[in-house]
Every structure is written in C-alpha cells, then in structure tokens.
Amino acid sequence: METRSNHVLVGAVVLILLLMLALFTVWLARLSGGNDKEYDIFFKQAVDGVNKGSPVSFSGVPSGQVTDIALFKPDPQFVRVRIRVNDDVPILEGTTATIQGIGFTGVSQVSLDGAVKGAPPIACPEGESTQECPFGVPVIPTRQGGLGAILNSAPQLLERISTLTERLTELLSDRNQNSIAGILANTQRLTDALADRGPEIAATMAETRIAIQKAGVAAQQIGELAATTNGVLADDVKPAMQNLNKAIGAAQKSAETLDAAIGDARPGLQAFSKQTVPEVGQLVSDLRTLTEALADVAERVNRGGAGSLVGSSKLPDYEAK
C-alpha cells in the first residue's frame, strides 16, 4: 500500500510540474507576442499553399506568420487572411500584400512590400471601423504578383491563344496561301525589275542630290539678297521718305495759303459775278447788233457802190410793149 501511495504522489507531482511548465510556456508566448500587430488581407484569388502558421515576410525578411484563413461571408469571392507581424515592422500606407511560392514544394507565404518613407502607418480610422476595418484590425491592400497573377490570368491567356490559333488557321487557308504566293511572286518580279533599273535609279538619286544642293545654294543666295535689300531699304528709302514728308508738309502749307487767298478774294468775285457779268453780257449783245449793221452796210456797198449809202435806189426803167 505504501508503494502504491508513493507512485500516486510522484505521478501527481509530475502532472503538476508539467501543467506549470505548460502555463509558463503559454505565458512566455503571450509575453513575446504581446506587442505584435494583427492585420487582415482580403485576397481575390486562390490562396493555395497558404495555411495557418505560414510565414509572412516584409521585403524578403521574415516578419510574422498567418494566424487565420477564412472565406469573407459578405462576398465569398474574397478570402480573408489574418496575419500577425512584429511590432518593429513598418506597415505604412502604400504597403501591399501578395502570395509568393517558396521553391517547388507547393508551400506559399504572404509577402509584404511597397512601404513609402514618411507615410503614416496603416490603422483603422476612428468611427469607421465597420467599413474599412470590418473585423476590428487594419486591412492591407493586395497586389497580384508572381504565381498568383499567372494563375489568375491563365484562362484569359488560354482564350487569347485559342483565338489567335483560329485566326492563324483562317489566314493560312488554301485560298489565302495562293494569294500569298501570288504576292510573293509579284514582289519577286518587282525586286528583279528594281535590280535591273539599279543604275538608272542611282543616276536619278545622284541628280536629285545635285538638285538639292543647288536648291540649298539658291536659298542661301536668296537669303543674302534679302539681307542686301533690307540694307538698301534702310539706307535709301528712309531719306526719300523724309523728303516726301517735307514735300507733303510744303504742299499742305501751300493749300492753306491758297485757301486764305480765296477767302480774301471771295467778296470781289461775288461783285464781279453780280455786276460785271451782266454788263459784259449787254456789251456782247450790243456788239452783235453793231456787227449785223456793219454787215448790212458792207452788203449795200458791194451792191450799189458808195452812192447807195446817201440816196435811194433807182427804179428800173419801164418799157411799154
């Protein structure tokens, strides 16, 4: 009985010691991870190879581990991955998360990268925890990369390859092959014709080069002529313009003097037009009458001589029959 009692006592002491050791280990784990930070990541892709306890790295440096993986019930196309990282890891705004494979073992890890120097840390804004932090911890945005991006784009890539294959098949049909063969034959004939015309083409190119050179020389000469013309205009036209301005000034002064003279002569001109002009008209009328009388006298002298001016004209003699 005493031996059995000793065994029970020893067993009880061992159990107590093991329980204390386990509690001490848990206490140490909590103490070491008490300053760790938790973040949620919502991946819109498969998270193959990521499990609880999978490593988390920041720019390739081990920084934490995955603590939970679950579907996001409000939107099942997202997978929520919760990670715990060390307190000294700079999870700043601009940091993104991707899934990267580790070697060829099929195991993957969560990789963090892209922190911007001087940016504030990612945190839940006050009063909006239900929108931007649905589970009470900050959310790190995702970025497709590596194997995940390739796998996600694989269906579109296969569809494009299939479409390209179909179009190539249509392009290389028998009719199109004949057309391509005709195009190649025509191209060959054109090449042969160009080869035969090679010397003529070379001569044409040489003449074109000479013409371009002459055009350049002509353009240079035109530029020099324009510069000379500008100099002539600057030297000759300016004095001529000055003389012309002086002549215009003198003409203006003459016009002003003429206007003044006309103004002074205007009373005399009015008197001349009112008095002298009518008298001149009467004088002309009298002269016209005198001229007619003199003409009549001259005609009488021509007919009857000078006696016709002092006596009457003789009647013709009458003879009885």
From TrEMBL:
* Name the record gives this protein: Mammalian cell entry protein
Q: What lineage, starting at the top, does this entry show?
A: Bacteria, Pseudomonadati, Pseudomonadota, Alphaproteobacteria, Sphingomonadales
Its keywords, alphabetically, are: Membrane, Transmembrane, Transmembrane helix
Q: Where are the transmembrane segments?
A: 7-29
Q: Does the keyword Transmembrane helix apply?
A: yes
Q: In the UniProt record, does the keyword Transmembrane occur?
A: yes
Matching entries from InterPro entries are given as: Mce/MlaD (IPR003399)
Annotated Mce/MlaD domain residues = 38-113
